[in-house]
């Protein structure tokens, strides 16, 4: 009976360890949305964390889903070294900008066009962590830079500061003018 209890405990422990092993997966981190100006270059940042040390079998896949939801397109692949796409819209327009030792698998897209609007996915596998999250970055290519909330806030604070300086200057000038007028009246009263 004792042997069966030990065997049952070992099976339960084995199942729990297997569940923990499957839970240990690669986590991928990206910005949710990036806005870039037409004709510029943009770094799409992607970092990862893994419960296992970085292995020689680490691979990175970047893919693109256009806004019109047409077929996914490969953008970039990494396995021991970076591989640029041999064809497609990103041929000669994408460069590796990552550092595997720092868990960074970022890329740069060159000469952005409005047709590059869509969602880029970054997937990392690091044996034995072959499962995990897929990072997504929604890229919006705009014709010109629009005022962000920070720019608007800076303009509002700057304008308010200038207005306050003008008001304080006007108050000081009015007081000096009144003081001179009062001094003149006192002078005239003294001479009479």
From TrEMBL:
GO terms for biological process: cell-cell adhesion. Its main location: membrane. SMART domains: IG, IGv. One of its GO terms (cellular component) is plasma membrane. Keywords: Disulfide bond, Glycoprotein, Immunoglobulin domain, Membrane, Signal, Transmembrane, Transmembrane helix. The chain crosses the membrane at residues 150-174. Residues 24-140 form the Ig-like domain. PROSITE patterns: IG_LIKE. InterPro entries: Ig-like_dom, Ig-like_dom_sf, Ig-like_fold, Ig_sub, Ig_V-set, Myelin_P0-rel. The keyword Protease does not apply. It is a single-pass type I membrane protein. Residues 1-25 form the signal peptide. It is found in: Membrane. The keyword Zinc does not apply. PANTHER family: MYELIN P0 RELATED, MYELIN PROTEIN ZERO-LIKE PROTEIN 2. Belongs to the myelin P0 protein family. This is MPZL2 protein. It comes from Anthoscopus minutus (Southern penduline-tit).
């Amino acid at each position: 009976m004792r042997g069966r209890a030990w065997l049952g405990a070992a099976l339960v422990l084995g199942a729990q360890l297997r569940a923990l092993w499957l839970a240990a997966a690669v986590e991928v981190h990206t910005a949710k949305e990036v806005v870039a100006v037409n004709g510029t270059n943009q770094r799409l940042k992607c970092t990862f964390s893994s419960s296992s040390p970085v292995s020689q079998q680490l691979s990175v896949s970047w893919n693109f889903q256009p806004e019109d939801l047409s077929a996914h397109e490969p953008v970039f692949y990494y396995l021991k070294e970076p591989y640029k796409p041999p064809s497609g819209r990103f041929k000669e327009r994408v460069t590796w900008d990552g550092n595997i030792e720092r868990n960074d698998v970022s890329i740069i897209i060159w000469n952005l066009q409005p047709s590059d609007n869509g969602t880029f996915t970054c997937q990392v596998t690091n044996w034995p962590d072959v499962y995990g999250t897929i990072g997504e970055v929604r890229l919006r290519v705009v014709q010109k830079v629009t005022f962000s909330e920070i720019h608007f806030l800076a303009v509002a604070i700057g304008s308010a500061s200038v207005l306050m300086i003008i008001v304080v200057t006007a108050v000081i000038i009015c007081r000096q003018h009144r003081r001179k007028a009062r001094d003149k009246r006192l002078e005239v009263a003294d001479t009479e």
